[in-house]
Amino acid sequence: MSKKDKGMPLYRLALCSFLVALSIVCGKFLKIPVGDVMRFSFENLPILFAGLVFGPVEGALVGVVADLLGCLLYGYAINPMVTAGAVCIGLLAGLGGVVLRRMPMAWRVVLTTAAAHLIGSVVIKTLGLARYYSMPLLPLMGWRLLNYAVVGIAEAAALCLLLRNKGIQRLTKGG
Q: φ and ψ at 30, to 5 degrees?
């Protein structure tokens, strides 16, 4: 086993830690609340980035740590379905990055973001929120589908810009 294969390199760990913090900040401070339960936020952007750049394991880890720490820091109740949704988003982003690696980067990002939000945000997280807040599932799912259609487009555009940036490419490769 070479030195390179022994666990996560320090730069990767540091960048994943930064992405966890960024996800928490985006979820708490860079949001547009709509009513009591709904909001437009970009908290999943760092999770998607981690999955696409580092793979499914790191994407899922950033998702779970960001969700759990966000709950602890801001006094939210931990909702296992919402946490599972965050994990799913990171996992699907990583899998999409691997499975679709031969596709042009823009298509890979758009398809991965759409699948991650559809399954992780619209289905899994909505099930958890509907149960927690005792809300009807289908209207909530419809609203969240609309919400993540808008957020997903913005996140896909931001990811395309970030992943094309030469400085970001050097940073994610440890150089």
A: -105, 60
